[in-house]
Amino acid sequence: MRHDRSSTLHVRLAALALGATLLAGCGADDAEAPGGGAGVPSSNAPSGTPSASPDAPPSQADTPTAPPEPAVANTVVSGLAAPWGLDFLPDGTAVVTERDSRRVLVIEDGQAREIGVLSEAVAQGEAGLLGIAVSPDFDEDQTLFLYLSTGSDNRIVKATFDGERLGTPEPILTGIPHGFTHDGGRLAFGPDGYLYASTGDSGDRGLSQDEESLGGKILRMTPEGDPAPGNPDGGLVWSLGHRNVQGLAFDETGQLWASEFGDKSFDEVNRIEAGGNYGWPQVEGTGGGQGLIDPHVTWPTDDASPSGLAYAGGHLWMASLRGERLWRVTVTDGQASDPTAYFVGDYGRLRTVAVAPNGNLWLTTSNRDGRGDPAQGDDRILELTLE
Fold first, then answer.
1. Distant-in-sequence, close-in-space partners of 333: CB < 8 Å, separation ≥ 6
2. How far apart are CA 104 and CA 85, in angstroms?
3. Which of 27, 29, 345, 353 could cross-link with 267 by S-S, CB 3.0 to 4.6 Å?
4. pLDDT in tens, 36-73
């Protein structure tokens, strides 16, 4: 079933090792330009850990359990070009999209195998073949969901995968505003079985507050593209007032978190509430006032320009493009705080982070997208253990 909803409703902290309170931060999609993280040392020690008094022996209370630390285990695969979406089949096989080549790949024994090309996708700027999500019922329906840009819109399609080739894509939602920048593009199935999709304002900032537009929103839908039961006002829109969300992650309680590009001042991690208004374009960062929801964490643009987001070990893990680092953010009692940076400048621009079935993190680079440092070479996927 095809639905055209175009008219439907609707993480460089300067004080990493000093344990300072989080500063405000920003990241525009145009801040995906090279630079930002160069010359900043990597931080592989958790910030804010209390130290025991030298006059007293340490007790169990004085030595809390350390938060998980990421360590690079290996390069899973190299030779990629601007990988964007990443998810896993039930058997552990990874499926990956490349934005500009429009290819869909599976990763098998350290090799990438093409299973299809979405020829209707149009790659320009930040648009192209973006997110991918595996059906929670894949063993039964063998279905993949993909977010792509055409010449006239952004849309979500589904296609079967028989283990060898991708079937013919079928649109389930069309008419999402698109542009050269700010196309959103992340897909994720929630624990409720419904599909969540992030959209951008496509450069038209007024769309984020327009309840009749799908731009600048987080959408929640059935696998057929219909509004999911329980959505605010019965439409597709789950939350609004977003500039360009490119990361979605659910914690162990089922709470949805999102990473979002700011404009000139602040990038954000937000706790998403049904019907919540996150303030763009009236406000960027905190201080939105009545009726608007403030972010839990913000960053300056040089330190983030966030894309992918994942949840593991009681923490959010956020990939940063211009910031060229992986951020770990602690989640406690529904509150996100205490960001710590890893691998600053080590691998260039980082696009997507996902939790593999074995509990490790997979992290994609994005250096062959026209904005990265060519010295970084081909894009690759890294596997990180949490120690």
1. none
2. 9
3. 27
4. 332 222 333 333 322 223 333 333 344 457 899 999 88
Residues in CB range of 246: below 8 A, 6 or more apart: 184, 185, 186, 198, 259, 260, 261, 306, 307, 308
Structural contact between residues 272 and 256, judged by C-beta atoms closer than 8 angstroms: yes
For residue 288, name the pLDDT band (cuts at 50, 70, 90). confident
CA pair distance 260, 281, nearest whole angstrom: 13
pLDDT above 60: residue 274: yes
**Residues 382/72, Cβ–Cβ less than 8 Å:** yes
**Residue 301: alpha-carbon gap to chain centroid:** 16
Q: Strand 83-88 relative to strand 94-98: parallel, antiparallel, unpaired? A: antiparallel
Q: Kindly give, in sequence order, each residue whose CB lies less than 8 Å from that of residue 72, ignoring residues fewer than 6 positions away.
A: 343, 382, 383, 384
Length of the chain: 387
Query: Does pLDDT of 337 surpass 60?
Result: yes
d(CA 384, CA 84) in angstroms, rounded, equals 18
Structure tokens at 248: 């979605």
Q: 5: which residues sit within 8 A by CB, 6+ positions away?
A: 173, 174, 175, 176, 214, 225, 236
Identify the bridge partners of residue 270 per DSSP, sorted by sequence position. Answer: 258
Chain Cα centroid distance, residue 136 = 19
> Exposed, middle or buried: residue 314 (CB in 10 Å: 0-12, 13-18, 19+)?
middle
Q: DSSP character for 4?
A: B
Decide: residue 69, CB within 10 A, 0-12 exposed, 13-18 middle, 19+ buried: middle
pTM, entire model: 0.85
Tokens coding 30:
């145009």
248 Cα distance to chain centroid: 5
